[in-house]
Amino acid sequence: MQNTLKEKLQAEYTSIEDLSGGCGQAFNAIIVSPQFEKKNTLARHRLVNSALKVEIAAIHAWTPKCFTPEEWQRKQSEAGA
Hints:
Blueprint: H1 2-9, E1 13-18, E2 26-32, H2 41-51, H3 53-57, E3 61-67, H4 69-80
Parallel strand pairs: 2-3
Antiparallel strand pairs: 1-2
């Protein structure tokens, strides 16, 4: 999934966490992409879901958190403060 996100969305950072205890049915994801600029949350999720259409079809629960590079940098700075 990470390779697909990097390829299709030019994701600068991705983190995908399996929450299902190893069965691969529930995931949290952090995706940082410049393609999210000037898009609201719904539009960002639609971009991600479109890019991962095949993969998401086999997953029970998918929770993406989408950030622009600037938003991600700000979030990282706040977390470190």
